[in-house]
Specification:
By secondary structure, the chain is mainly alpha-helical. Helices cover 62% and strands 5% of the residues. α2 packs across α3. The protein is globular, with a radius of gyration of 11 Å. The chain starts with a strand and ends with a helix.
Amino acid sequence: MIVIKREDVVHKLEDYLHQRLPLAELVDWAEGAMQEGEFDERDFETLRDIVSRLGLADVRNFGLTWEDCATYLARL
């Protein structure tokens, strides 16, 4: 089982913002992390909240804005 840490989420968001990671791949990673990953206990709630939201970013009603990304990075 993979342990998802704060740094992992920061790197994924940075890669997305710098267009090194397409939205579809970010969503796939987040969905996989929610299903098969384990979140670092020190940041469990924050990581779970952010990753679960990233997993829905390809749904029109949820989306993912630059402001969302900035907010997530500030939380991390």
